[in-house]
Amino acid sequence: MNLMALTLIILIVSWEYPNKQGLGCNVISEDDTSNFLAFLQELRSHEGAQNLTLSAASSIVPFAGPDGLPSKDVSGFAQVLDYVEIMNYDIWGSWSNAVGPNAPLNDSCALPANQQGSAVSAIEAWTQAGLPANQLILGVASYGHSYYVDKNDAITMTSPQASSAGYASPPGAAPLAAYPPFDKAQQPLGDSWDSNAPAGVDLCGNSGSGGPSGIFNFFGLIEKGYLDVNGTALPGTGFRYDDCSQTPYVYDPQSQTMVSYDDTQSFAAKGKFIADASLAGFAIWEVAGDSRDMLLDAISSAIVKQ
């Protein structure tokens, strides 16, 4: 087959967890990663494939080896892939034991129990395993996860109103506790894109729990009255900006909903990191979750400035 006859220019392969459970019912093999590489090598050998931009999406750690642990050598993938997109999001969510950053830039400055992975640790792991930084794309998120947090756990008068970097809480915003517990039995409904669908059958054939995902896109936080049109937390909410992970949190005391998300400040920090680390660029999930291109402008401007 002549791949170029299909006018195919870019191909993204999204086998995100070779030799790891993804859905929970997929068949895995200790040969998954080596077979994945063999497939890509075969693909590259076809006529016209040398002109194809080929990339793969992956988690924050290198593809799993035969032992199920992150591979220590993925240099073979650097020979056949133009780029690897590191999906640095969904690090914390409704499955976690506390409210944490959805897409942390860094977590080495957090307590050990709160170090679940970040952009910094991901780039270090992939480059040490043989993937050059200029072939790595940082995945960033225009959405965040919501949690039901009791007001007694969410708001603390001992929490600073300004970060050490000078990111002050908006006027009238109450300071929030770091990594508070939440009630897993009460998942808040997210923005207008979220669905409170009844329980059904998942792709594995199991009965699902149904209900909302609790996801808020950046535009949704504005629509639902957490943020103003400029992306600033509104008076009457709770707010915290975590310097370590470069993550904002906003809290509605009435619904007792806390959201870990990304804003222009956190996107600018990621843009600076992309430039400083000489990465290939960024990929956003998803651009429609932005509002008036504020997030896109923030990260793009930060990259250009460096």
UniProtKB/TrEMBL annotation:
MF term (GO), any: chitin binding
SUPFAM superfamilies: (Trans)glycosidases, Chitinase insertion domain
Keywords: Signal
GO biological process terms, semicolon-separated: carbohydrate metabolic process; chitin catabolic process
InterPro entries, per the entry: Chitinase_II/V-like_cat, Chitinase_insertion_sf, GH, Glyco_hydro18_cat, Glycosyl_Hydrlase_18
Residues in GH18 domain copies: 1-306
Signal peptide start and end residues: 1-22
A cellular component term, taken from the record's GO annotations: extracellular region
Pfam families, alphabetized: Glyco_hydro_18
Protein name: GH18 domain-containing protein
Organism of provenance: Hermanssonia centrifuga
